[in-house]
Amino acid sequence: MSFIDSIVGFGKKALGFVGGSSIGGQLARTALLGYALNRVAASAQKANQQQDKGTQFTLDPDTEHSVPVLYGEGYVTGKITDAVLAPNNFDMWVCFTLCERTGNKIDGTPSAISFKEIYVDGMRLGFKDNGTTVETIWDDSGNNSEQWANLIEVYPYSGGSASPVSFTTEGSGNTLPAYNIMPGWTSTDTMNDLVFCIMKFRYNSEQNRKLTSIGREIKFRLSNTMTEPGDCLYDYMTNTRYGAGIPAAEILAQ
Amino acid sequence: MPNLDSYTSVRVGMFVRLQVDEYRTSSSGAYSSQVLRFSDYYEPITINAEVYTALGEFLSVTSSTNELRPSENPVTIGISGIPTNSINEIVHSKIKGCPISIYRGYFNPAGELIGTITGRFIGSVNNYSIQEDFDIDSRTSSHILMLECASSVGILSQKISGRKTNPQSQKTFYPSDTAMNRVPTIKGTKFNFGAPQ
Q: Are residues B179 and B148 in the same domain?
């Protein structure tokens, strides 16, 4: 007789008591049934609590939003002009259109708009060595955290889909055309003469690393090399896309 | 404006420069760019290396108010004595919208320019009309061309430029760009971010 048989024998003794017709046996059966039901209900409730249903939201693109012109330096919130949720439901791609690309200065030098900083819900984003993936975030008081590390990626463009740029604070950064980044875009999605940014958000519901939406407000700090009043006025007067379209020959610019 | 204090009499000349980018002489002719320069002076005058044809009394320019700030007041230019066989040039050319400039020069009795030619009006041809003047005695007719000119200030005050974040506006400037095509579609779309598959 092995120890296995001993275990079976012990079980039979215990069940013999529970399976008997005595009052104690009936009480024991009732108690066991209640306990089993209680465990099943608790297990189902726990399973329900652990099932993360994600976040359902709508975006607010505006078909009547006028694309602004930025001279000097400033903060721009931009407008969403495209959004794609990846098939896994965890990666959200959003395109923010920020401002127009400006023209040449009076001396003929092309102006350039660069990205200096980005804020998500008031938190400034800092990047990993690749210049696009978020690593650290800072609040206004200078406190930092890595709660969104690897959850957000930022791809800025200045002038069109084929003009990737990097944040001025980063040594490296975005080098790919926008139509190679944004899902569903092709080479005809050119975003001509626009300054815009593509962002990728990865869903995460973990405590202390929560990212379940794309934020209430995303703000970009941009800087235009066109800062002199004369250059700005001249550009605004002559530009045929967003300005007055006055022929340059009619303006005595020096 | 030049200082005229030391002159007892002066002669004023109005000089009109009309740039017609699509000018042709018949309905089937090819368009070409033509700059029309004419004045109400009695003899041709050269300004900025461009000769202004003297029309004398055949040219009239309505008065304009002189204001410190740029004015939106329109100006009407009348050119009379146009022969019937020249009407085709006016009708078949695209004069509406053409840029027009009016300059003014002051001359002393000897015909010498006082100071420099100054600008009086810069704008575009808003509309034009042709009136026929029939001479019964000679049984010939001539025409008067009236050019209604809108000031650049007036045009700019009504001008709306720029683009909006919608596909129609984007395609106005860049017809092949499809990047804004999805803006109307994603408005109101529900995204189940992080939902189980």
A: no
> Do residue B99 and residue A56 have CB atoms under 8 angstroms apart?
no
- Quote the Cα angle for A83-A188-A74, to 5°: 55
B151 — contact with chain A (CB < 8 Å)? no
pLDDT by residue (tens digit) across A70-80? 999 999 998 99
Are the C-beta atoms of residues A148 and A209 closer than 8 Å to each other? yes
In this structure, what are the phi and psi dihedrals at residue A232, rounded to the nearest 5 degrees?
-65, -45
Per residue in B69-116, pLDDT tens?
Answer: 777 888 999 999 998 889 999 999 999 999 999 999 999 988 889 988
Q: How many CB atoms lie within 10 A of CB B10?
A: 13
Residue of B nearest to A203 (CA): B194
Same-domain check for residues B34 and B117: yes
Best A192, A200, A205, A206 residue to mutate vs chain B (most B CBs within 10 Å): A192
Nearest CA in chain B to A60: B187
Q: What residues of B are in contact with residue A244 (Cβ under 8 Å)?
A: 156, 159, 161
Domain span including residue B154: 11-158
In a domain, residue B2? The reply is: no
pTM: 0.70
Question: Are B167 and B126 part of one and the same domain?
Answer: no
Whether B3 is covered by a domain: the verdict is no
Q: How far apart are CA A192 and CA B81, in angstroms?
A: 51
Specify the 3-state DSSP secondary structure of A135: strand
Q: Do B126 and B169 fall within a single domain?
A: no
Please give the ipTM for the structure prediction: 0.75
In chain A, the residue whose alpha carbon lies closest to the alpha carbon of B158 is A244
Which of B166, B191, B196 minimises the CB distance to A56?
A: B191
- Cβ of B159 within 8 Å of Cβ of A244? The answer is yes
Do A81 and B197 lie within an 8 Å CB cutoff?
Answer: no
